[in-house]
């Protein structure tokens, strides 16, 4: 059994936004700092890392260019989000006596088929190498979600007062809701701001990565703050009473924060993203007994929509489903109905985070899968 640290190359092609780099950096950092792996992050555009992880040069992760790095004997090769690693690198992989474990780290989805596909291998038609699908996920039978071992310690040491002071955030007024806003330009933000301005409950909207001047309209205050590091973004999610998140990584972080959240899913062609949205809601909404989920899953498999299925079984949180659908589909946002659910949504968020914690995190699952495949564990 080799006593040398596992060598791991993670390939990341930045499509747009921050999530590709965000997810790959978290994974690289965790494998290096928690498991002592020698990790190289091979990325085609490292710009986002300067914002996501300003301390990235102070870790043992070696950041190299995607196209300018040859295979050098890595035991594990992670191809993030099917980014197609360079052909010369693939050919060099075949020269290793014991082929490296080659993983395709997939996008996160709650759709049932991902857990049946997780871990399956496909054989490269020309090179004969095995590439395994590695699906993140929310329950058993999948790869899990990224979550660092020191997450709870960081949260226990978090001081809302110091965080507000450090970011020069105004103090929250009595009964004022602090809300973090991270969304795509397509979100119906003007409609939301109008609803918040007229809301009976005052709202302080905190917008990271925006340069908008502060504004005050009716019961709404909007403050912009700089784009935060990933570590500080967790702190913003812990500070706020409600978090608007998007894509994949901030969506996961909001779940660990165990606060009510509104998710704007990354838009995809032919509305494929709406199926993913519905799939997640069939699991997330606190609809009680399993048979309700089964009914909604059945309806889903018959091509139905989770919201209809859940409403059909008189789910408890239709305002959440309505609000999430409207946020993603430019519908009419019923802030009044949604905001009255916030106490219940807080309980939902805590219950959901507790369920997620019952499963190993993604880096742990990936390590165990690789050691098993390398016949080292
Ligand atoms: O930026 P995104 O829209 O990235 C998207 C998604 O990942 C999507 O799945 C993918 O297909 C597409 O990119 C190509 O959303 P996401 O996934 O939340 O990534 C944002 C990252 O930025 C995440 O790591 C959180 C981090 N972040 C900060 O570190 N500081 C901040 O201030 C904010 C707002 C986010």
Record the SSE blueprint.
Elements: E1 7-12, H1 19-35, E2 38-43, H2 47-52, E3 62-65, E4 76-80, H3 87-93, E5 101-105, H4 112-117, E6 121-123, E7 130-134, H5 151-156, H6 160-166, E8 177-181, H7 189-197, E9 203-208, E10 215-217, E11 220-225, H8 230-239, E12 242-246, H9 249-257, E13 261-264, H10 272-284, H11 290-301, H12 306-312, H13 318-329, H14 335-339, H15 342-356, H16 362-373
The structure holds 2'-deoxy-thymidine-beta-L-rhamnose.
Nutshell version of this structure?
The chain has 377 residues and is α/β, with parallel strands linked by helices. It is built from 16 helices and 13 strands. About 7% of the residues have low confidence.
Give an overview of the whole structure.
The radius of gyration is 22 Å and the shape is globular. It is an alpha/beta fold. It has helices spanning 19-35, 47-52, 87-93, 112-117, 151-156, 160-166, 189-197, 230-239, 249-257, 272-284, 290-301, 306-312, 318-329, 335-339, 342-356, 362-373; strands at 7-12, 38-43, 62-65, 76-80, 101-105, 121-123, 130-134, 177-181, 203-208, 215-217, 220-225, 242-246, 261-264. It has three domains: 7-144 and 360-373, 3-Layer(aba) Sandwich (Rossmann fold); 154-264, Rossmann fold; 266-358, no CATH class. It contains 16 helices and 13 strands. Helix 1 crosses helix 16 (362-373) and helix 10 (272-284) packs antiparallel against helix 11. It has a seven-stranded mixed β-sheet with strand order 3-2-1-4-5-7-6, with helices on one face. A six-stranded mixed β-sheet has the order 10-11-9-8-12-13, sandwiched between helices. Bound molecules: 2'-deoxy-thymidine-beta-L-rhamnose. Residues 15-20, 22, 52, 107, 182, 208-209, 227-230, 233, 246-251, 266 line the site of 2'-deoxy-thymidine-beta-L-rhamnose.
């Amino acid at each position: 059994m080799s006593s040398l640290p596992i060598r791991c190359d993670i390939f990341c092609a930045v499509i747009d936004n921050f999530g590709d780099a965000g997810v790959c950096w978290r994974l690289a950092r965790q494998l290096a700092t928690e498991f002592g792996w020698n990790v190289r992050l091979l990325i085609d555009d490292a710009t986002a890392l300067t914002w996501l992880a300003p301390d990235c040069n102070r870790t043992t992760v070696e950041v190299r260019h995607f196209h300018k790095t040859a295979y050098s004997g890595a035991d594990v090769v992670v191809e993030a989000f099917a980014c197609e690693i360079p052909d010369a690198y693939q050919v060099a992989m075949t020269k290793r006596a014991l082929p490296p474990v080659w993983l395709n780290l997939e996008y996160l989805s709650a759709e049932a088929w991902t857990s049946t596909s997780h871990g399956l291998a496909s054989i490269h038609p020309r090179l004969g190498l095995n590439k395994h699908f590695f699906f993140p996920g929310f329950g058993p039978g999948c790869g899990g979600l990224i979550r660092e071992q020191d997450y709870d310690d960081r949260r226990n040491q978090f001081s809302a007062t110091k965080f507000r002071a450090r970011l020069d955030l105004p103090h929250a007024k009595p009964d004022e809701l602090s809300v973090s806003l991270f969304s795509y330009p397509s979100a119906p933000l003007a409609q939301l701001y109008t609803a918040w301005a007229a809301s009976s409950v005052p709202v302080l909207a905190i917008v990271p990565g925006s340069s908008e001047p502060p504004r005050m309209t009716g019961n709404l205050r909007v403050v912009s703050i700089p784009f935060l590091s990933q570590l500080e973004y967790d702190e913003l999610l812990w500070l706020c009473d409600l978090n608007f998140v998007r894509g994949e990584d901030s969506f996961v972080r909001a779940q660990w924060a165990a606060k009510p959240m509104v998710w704007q899913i990354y838009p995809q062609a032919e509305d494929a993203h709406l199926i993913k949205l519905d799939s997640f809601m069939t699991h997330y909404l606190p609809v009680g007994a399993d048979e309700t989920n089964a009914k909604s899953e059945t309806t889903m498999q018959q091509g139905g929509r989770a919201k209809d299925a859940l409403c059909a079984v008189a789910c408890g949180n239709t305002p959440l489903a309505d609000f999430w659908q409207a946020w993603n589909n430019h519908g009419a946002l019923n802030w009044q109905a949604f905001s009255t659910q916030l106490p219940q949504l807080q309980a939902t968020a805590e219950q959901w985070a507790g369920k997620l914690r019952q499963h190993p995190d993604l880096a742990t699952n990936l390590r165990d899968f690789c050691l098993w495949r390398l016949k080292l564990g």
